[in-house]
Write a structure and sequence with these properties.
The protein is α/β, with parallel strands linked by helices and 280 residues long. The chain folds into two domains: 152 residues, D-Maltodextrin-Binding Protein, domain 2 (3-Layer(aba) Sandwich), CATH 3.40.190.10; 101 residues, Periplasmic binding protein-like II (D-Maltodextrin-Binding Protein, domain 2), CATH 3.40.190.10. Helices cover 36% and strands 29% of the residues. It is built from nine helices and twelve strands. A hairpin with a 3-residue loop joins strand 2 and strand 3.
C-alpha cells in the first residue's frame, strides 16, 4: 500500500470519527436541556391504520411504521419517553389543540392554515400515487382523466383540496365534475375503491405501495408524483421545548444515517427526506 493510500485512509477515518462525534445522541442530558419535559412521557397522537407510516404490529401488539420509528428514535436520542393515544386520522390534530396530547405523528402535511395553531418539525416531502383497480379500467393516466369519475377523499388530508381543485378545473373546461365522497379515514376511502363506489384513490405513495404489495391482483398505480408538500410532526403552537427536542433528535438521527435506514426499512424513497426544519 502506498504512502498516499495510507494517508487517504487515515483522513477518511478521521472524517468518519468527526461525523460520528457531531451526530452523537445525549439522552443523559435530558434534565439539563429539557427540564420541563424530563421525567414524563410525551403523549403521541397517532393512528393504527396508516401503513407504512403508523400502524399496529398485531403479533407484537405495538405501534410500528416509519413515522413511529422516526419519532421514537428522535425522542430516545434526547432522553425522552413516550406513550400513544390512538384514533382515526382526522381526530388526531384536535387532540393536540385541546391539550389531550402533545404531538401528532401520522404523516401530517404542513399547511399555513394548520400552522396558525400548530408548529411543525418537517423531515420529508410528500409523494402521491393514483391508486386504481387492477387493469386500470377507466384508463386513468393523468389528473385530467379524472373528470366525470367517482372517488373518496379523506377529511383533512392533502388529497381532498387537490381533488376539489381538479374537479373545478373539469367544470371550467366544460367537462363533468369529479364526484367526491368525503371519508374520515384512508381505509374507509379504500373500501369505496374495493366496492366499486369509487373509480380511483389519490393515495400517499408509501401507503399505495403497501396496498399493492399486500394484494397485487387487486390494485395498481396509474401514475405517481412528488409534490412540494412537506410532512412532519405537529405540536401545539408555543410548545417550544418539545419542538426543539424533536429538532435536535431528528437532526442527530438524520446525521448518523438512522433516518435513511428507517425509510429503506419501510419501503420509502430516501430521496423524499428533506433537511430537518421547524415551520411555524
Amino acid at each position: 500500500m502506498t504512502k498516499l493510500q495510507n494517508t487517504l485512509i487515515a483522513a477518511a477515518g478521521i472524517a468518519a470519527l468527526a461525523a460520528s462525534a457531531q451526530a452523537a445522541c445525549e439522552p443523559e442530558k435530558v434534565a439539563e436541556k429539557y427540564p420541563e419535559l424530563a421525567g414524563k412521557p410525551v403523549r403521541v397522537a397517532t393512528t393504527p391504520l396508516y401503513a407504512p407510516y403508523s400502524y399496529t404490529d398485531m403479533a407484537k401488539d405495538k405501534m410500528v411504521g416509519s413515522d413511529i420509528e422516526v419519532s421514537e428514535k428522535a425522542l430516545e436520542c434526547v432522553g425522552l419517553t413516550y406513550e400513544y393515544t390512538k384514533g382515526v386520522w382526522s381526530s388526531l390534530l384536535p387532540t393536540i389543540l385541546n391539550g389531550q396530547t402533545d404531538v401528532m405523528v401520522a404523516n401530517l402535511y404542513y399547511t399555513p392554515e394548520r400552522a396558525e395553531k400548530a408548529d411543525f418539525i418537517i423531515y420529508m416531502k410528500a409523494g402521491s400515487a393514483m391508486l386504481v383497480p387492477k387493469g386500470n379500467p377507466k384508463g386513468v393516466q393523468s389528473m385530467d382523466d379524472l373528470c366525470g369519475l367517482k372517488t373518496n377523499g379523506v377529511s383533512g388530508s392533502y388529497s381532498l383540496p387537490i381533488l376539489q381543485e381538479q374537479s373545478a378545473k373539469c367544470v371550467a373546461n366544460g367537462e363533468k365534475p369529479i364526484t367526491i365522497t368525503v371519508a374520515t379515514e384512508t381505509d374507509a376511502a379504500l373500501r369505496g375503491l374495493d366496492s366499486g363506489r369509487a373509480d380511483f384513490l389519490l393515495d400517499n405513495v408509501g401507503a399505495a405501495a403497501v396496498r399493492i404489495a399486500e394484494d397485487p391482483e387487486r390494485y395498481e398505480i396509474a401514475f405517481s408524483a412528488t409534490r412540494e408538500i412537506f410532512v412532519g410532526n405537529a405540536v401545539l403552537d408555543g410548545n417550544d421545548a418539545l419542538l426543539q427536542a424533536y429538532e435536535e433528535g431528528m437532526k442527530e438521527i438524520a446525521a448518523n444515517g438512522t433516518l435513511e435506514d428507517i425509510f429503506v426499512k419501510y419501503g420509502l424513497d430516501p430521496n423524499l427526506i428533506v433537511p430537518i426544519e421547524i415551520k411555524r
